[in-house]
């Protein structure tokens, strides 16, 4: 069972890192598509700003929850571990916002960075409320 728990935590880590890669990729696409750009760039450019703002909240909440769940699955869920994780996620979001200054047609946005922080804190709160309940289910370190 220990090997199964290790495999689950590694798979979960890979999924979480994949989400971060997708978030970074979408955040750093050029804002003004030019002839010859990929369909993805054109598609992302058509997303309404209101939906983009909502996605900041949702994606950063999901990301925070996923990292906290991974910490719990691997037994690294100390208070310091959780705090450092939240700080790292906020730094990730702030860094991506800052890097947009280097992307044609994009700009760094303090409100977007604020939405990233609010999403991170929301995911942390949800994790704090839900994760203690996961010890009683079969997916968690309590059932190795």
Helices and strands in order:
Elements: H1 2-27, H2 39-45, H3 49-74, H4 79-99, H5 110-134
Helix pairs in contact: 1-3, 3-4, 3-5, 4-5
Q: Which sheet architecture does the biggest sheet show?
A: none
Q: Would you tell me the structural class of the helices and strands? A: mainly alpha
SSE arrangement, N to C: HHHHH
- Taken together, the total number of domains comes to 1
Computed over alpha carbons, the radius of gyration is 17 Å
For the terminal residues, how far apart are their CA atoms?
A: 5 Å
Detail the poorly predicted runs: 138-144
Coarse shape: elongated
Amount of beta strand: under 5%
Q: Quickly count the helices.
A: 5
Mean pLDDT: 88
State the helical fraction.
over 70%
Number of strands: 0
Q: Classify the oligomer.
A: single chain
List keywords for this structure.
single chain; elongated
Notes on the structure:
The protein has 144 residues and is mainly α. It has one domain. 73% of the residues lie in helices and 0% in strands. The relative contact order is 0.17.
In short:
It contains five helices and no strands. It has one domain (2-143).
